[in-house]
Amino acid sequence: EIAYYHDRFVDVDERVIPIQERGHQFGDGIYEVIRVYDGEPFTMKEHMERLEKSAEAIGMGLPYSREKIEALALEALERSGIQEAEIYMQITRGIHLRQHHYPDPSEPVLSMVVKEARKLTPEKRAAGVPVITTEEIRWKMCWIKSLNLLPNVMAKQKAMEAGAHEAVFVDQGTVTEGSSSNLFIVKDGTLLTHPATNAILHGITRRVILDIAEELGIPVEERTFTLDELLEADEAFLSSTTMEAASISAVDGRPLKGGRTLLDRIHARFVERTKKE
Ligand code: PDD
After folding, report:
1. Catalytic entry in 145, 156, 158, 187
2. Is the dihedral of CA 7, 9, 11, 12 positive or negative?
3. Where are the transmembrane segments (predicted)?
């Protein structure tokens, strides 16, 4: 494990955040999680583009050029010596006497942690994972990868306490996404997922899966679907940087059909891509 804060590499356990850091006091910042396969960051470009979009959306500049941030991430990765890694990267609006409005000038601060990747166990990948549903209580800009994750944290905790793997937000009957993942269902051979609106994070894995589906000639519809449609789906799965594409076995204790014809085809192609990049 290795970490970076502001302008230097640090030990992950070192206490480095100044008390008036806005990420810490307001959650005033953004982040990315990038998976590394066999020493190679996967879809780095897409993550960096999303990071830039999120920064722009909150009116914040990046502390360094994209090239420099990428170079620092690669240096961190190398220093960590980890082959199957996860790069956590966050940028906050910096350190300033506490006030709500933006400091002027603001000096954004980069931090990173590189650690061993969390992986779904082969058993869970084979059997699928149970999820629970929870009321959508988040804000209307879920596409920004904001540090403000309290609703997501609370939802995930609820899932853990229920013995489930993920909590799925449901907004008046419509399934939006998981606390840290996107959702897909398959109905009569068509792959469905929530459109990339303000209501969800536009997952990079989601994008890769849609791309693979197109490559495989699988019909896709980016449209909202209801909890009932999820319960009746032929296949249902979660997608995220850490889970890749993971079958959902049950929702609120109700077993799903558990089909995985398209999921297995898509996931096999996904794994190939992680090896090619
Ligand atoms: N979470 N939706 C939410 C709310 C997320 O937090 C994430 C990712 C996703 C999936 O996005 P992607 O495919 O780009 O990882 C969807 C990361 C992994 C996290 O917070 O740890």
Report:
1. 145
2. positive
3. none
